[in-house]
Amino acid sequence: MKSVVCLAPGELALEDRPWPDAPPAGWALVGVSHVGICGTDYHIFEGKHPYLAYPRVMGHEISGTVLEIGEGARLRTGQTVIVNPYIACGRCVACRQGKPNCCIAIEVLGVHRDGAMCEQLLVPAGNLYQTNGLSLADAAAVEFLAIGAHAVRRSQAGLGKRALVIGAGPIGLGTALFARIAGHEVTVLDVSRARLDFAERQLGFAVVDNLLATASASLSGRTDGEGFDVVFDATGNTGSVQSAFAHVAHGGALVMVSIVKDEIRFSDPEFHKREMMLIGSRNATRADFDHVAASIQAGAIPLAKLVTHKTTLEESPRDIARWAHEKSGLIKAVILVGGTA
Q1: What is the CATH number for 80?
Q2: Do 128 and 10 share a structural domain?
Q3: β-pair type (332-336, 27-37)
Q4: Nearest CA to 90 among 82, 80, 100, 81?
């Protein structure tokens, strides 16, 4: 089958690989329809991902159709599905607490094991969720939006709270959208004027340009000088994460949505005097996937605006390499594998 393989940092190739074997008990064979291209995929291509060994077939934002079912799998052939790409052990301390998203032995499709930039994929049946009326194109967007939905849920911030989302990439915009759905008063901070314009004009968010000398005053003015009840950092930038502490109100929280390789340093006296919470947010759970799917069905997520670029499996090695550097106008790109737009 056709597969896009990242052979090494900066090197992508379209290869013919063997078709998957028949699914074992509890698993299913999925025909891949659509695959979203994530910041994680660009990081893998650029050699910046901390948990990866090459070569790797990328792709973890997946929709598809069940082709074959292993013994005991409660699915039917022909069923359209959203793929939860986080394969958990089901036995560790995190799994026992209902947190398979941070399983000790987690294997994420496209990161720890080969993903969906290919024609067919074996997936545990428990990781497949019915599309329930979503198109396969829309279903492929559920996973990346679930990252933001999970971060908002992790924040524990209630109605009317003032939220700052740092980073206006796809994950940051998804976080901002679900913060708004949760009833937060949302401000988006970034250094890209183009992305801020998109967040403001297309999605209706208040924005602040972090490159302007007036940025600090603008942020302070948004909260009457008190700081934000919850700050979400979705930049993947060490300096940004460290600077984010200063934006948190007394009694507030900082949620680290993105991940960086470096150590994070902060002032303990500032941290303690605010009695602030520092929260890690990793992946997402079934509850987040369900919340996202319901929000898309309710018309609360403008997917037609978010999906700005499309490509095919054959053209994706060229396009991923180009989009890793040419970000103008790019919010979310999707590979059409076996489906249609």
Answers
A1: 3.90.180.10
A2: yes
A3: antiparallel
A4: 100
